[in-house]
């Protein structure tokens, strides 16, 4: 909701020609608002630090990755299409970043901790890129983190064979080197677009 | 390399012959299916270790009104028909009871839409391999048509990840 209104506000400002005026008032800050390919969420209060277990069994907080640009994707390993695609695209983005990718950390946070155990995440996550980390927490921790990132998720009722799907927000969040949530990358994101925005954050 | 054991070889050809004999009725039913149903571009997305589900896509064309009601695969314990939707960046998947196929209108099972979900994969699916899917269709007259399809396993993303 908040994201939408901010995007809409920018669109309206651009439409009425207010953007050049704003730009001339404070060139640097206005340019900083529009240069990203994806939605700027700086200062909107989206996302916060968390405490989760990684696929090696180590406790992790967002603060552990200070100094790096962090890309977070919420998903689940039983998701056959969207999640592997998103992770494969992030792996490609890292590849395109070359040596700069040393300063990027990709985190896969499961919204299905019941099935996505440490063992499952340890097989799954590094298969896309050895440096990716899979993270999980208990149900209430997962809910709290998802809520702070405005990520919606809801497990569906299992069918006769016990299989169930989980509805979830399929977005990527970018956190800057100082640990601040900065960008929201929703549907329609591309590898080149992600590389573009990650580079901008790395260069700050 | 070691010389091939002739007995083992003979044993293998005997099994092959038995399999071929078993396949004959399947092949003839496939022919009936093929005459009515045409499947093209069938593919399955590559999976990684730890991923227990896979997804299959294809294009279906039929000369008569049919309903795709069931899919079985040798690669997984079960297979389900799923409808995926995206709204406000929220991905939702719901099981579909059937997919209607009307004459001369191609139905696409593709990314971001209806697809076949392979549940409980027996092993990870590797690009270049293939998977056999048996599609069961219900005909308007209540009869059943089974169409076997060979789906190619393709890489995770359009741009293949080199070195993996």
Radius of gyration of chain B: 18 Å
Radius of gyration of chain A: 18 Å
CATH superfamily of chain B: PCu(A)C copper chaperone
Portion in helices of chain B:
10-25%
CATH topology of chain B: Immunoglobulin-like
What general form of chain B does the structure show?
globular
The N- and C-terminal alpha carbons of chain A lie at a distance of 28 Å
Please provide the count of β strands of chain A: 10
| Largest interface chains and counts | A-B, 35 and 35 residues
Distance between the termini of chain B: 29 Å
Structure write-up:
The complex is a heterodimer of chains A (204) and B (164). Chain A is an alpha+beta fold. Helices cover 39% and strands 21% of the residues of chain A. In chain A, the strands form 2 sheets. In chain A, strands 1-10-9-4-5-6-2-3 form an 8-stranded mixed sheet, sandwiched between helices. In chain B, strand 4 (76-87) and strand 5 form a beta hairpin. Chain B has one helix spanning 6-36; strands at 37-45, 53-62, 66-73, 76-87, 90-95, 99-101, 107-109, 114-121, 130-139, 144-154. Chain B contains 1 helix and 10 strands; from the N terminus they run H-E-E-E-E-E-E-E-E-E-E. The A-B interface holds A 77-82, 84-85, 88-89, 91-92, 95, 120-125, 127-128, 152, 156, 159, 161, 163, 165, 167-171, 186-187, 191 and B 45, 47-55, 77-78, 80, 82, 84, 86, 88-95, 111-112, 115, 117-120, 156-157, 159, 161.
Q: Topology, pairings included?
A:
The complex is a heterodimer of chains A (204) and B (164).
Chain A lengths: L1 H14 L2 H8 L1 H8 L4 E2 L10 E4 L4 E3 L7 E7 L6 H16 L6 E7 L7 H11 L4 E4 L2 H10 L4 E3 L10 E4 L2 E4 L5 E5 L5 H12 L2
Parallel strand pairs in A: 4-5, 5-6
Antiparallel strand pairs in A: 1-10, 2-3, 2-6, 4-9, 7-8, 9-10
Chain B lengths: L5 H31 E9 L7 E10 L3 E8 L2 E12 L2 E6 L3 E3 L5 E3 L4 E8 L8 E10 L4 E11 L10
């Amino acid at each position: 909701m908040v994201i939408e209104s901010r995007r809409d506000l920018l669109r309206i400002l651009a439409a009425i020609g207010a953007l050049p005026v704003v730009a001339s008032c404070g060139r640097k800050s206005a340019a900083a608002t529009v240069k990203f390919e994806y939605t700027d969420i700086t200062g909107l209060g989206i996302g916060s630090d968390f405490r989760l277990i990684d696929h090696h069994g180590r406790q992790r907080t967002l603060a552990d990755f200070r100094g790096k640009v962090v890309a977070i994707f919420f998903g689940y390993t039983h998701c056959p299409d969207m999640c592997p695609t998103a992770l494969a695209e992030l792996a490609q983005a890292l590849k395109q970043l070359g040596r700069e990718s040393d300063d990027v950390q990709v985190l896969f946070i499961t919204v299905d901790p019941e099935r996505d155990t440490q063992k499952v995440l340890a097989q799954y996550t590094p298969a896309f890129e050895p440096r990716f980390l899979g993270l999980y927490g208990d149900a209430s921790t997962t809910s709290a983190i998802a809520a702070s990132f405005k990520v919606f998720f809801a497990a569906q009722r299992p069918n006769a064979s016990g299989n169930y799907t989980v509805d979830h927000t399929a977005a990527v969040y970018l956190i800057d080197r100082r640990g601040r949530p900065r960008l929201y990358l929703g549907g329609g994101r591309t590898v080149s677009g992600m590389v573009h925005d990650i580079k901008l954050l790395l260069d700050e | 390399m070691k010389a091939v054991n002739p007995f083992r070889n003979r044993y293998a050809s005997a099994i092959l012959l038995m399999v071929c004999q078993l396949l004959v009725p399947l092949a003839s039913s496939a022919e009936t299916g093929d005459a009515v149903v045409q499947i093209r571009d069938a593919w399955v997305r590559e999976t990684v270790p730890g991923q227990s589900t896979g997804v299959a896509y294809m294009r279906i064309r039929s000369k008569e009104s049919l309903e795709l009601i069931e899919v079985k695969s040798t690669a997984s314990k079960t297979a389900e028909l799923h409808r995926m939707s995206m709204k406000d960046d929220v991905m939702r998947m719901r099981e579909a009871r059937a997919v209607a196929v009307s004459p001369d209108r191609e139905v696409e099972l593709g990314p971001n839409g209806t697809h076949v979900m392979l549940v409980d994969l027996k092993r990870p699916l590797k690009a270049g391999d293939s998977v056999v899917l048996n599609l069961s269709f219900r005909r308007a007259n209540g009869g059943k048509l089974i169409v076997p399809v060979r789906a190619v396993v393709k890489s995770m993303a359009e741009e293949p990840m080199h070195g993996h």
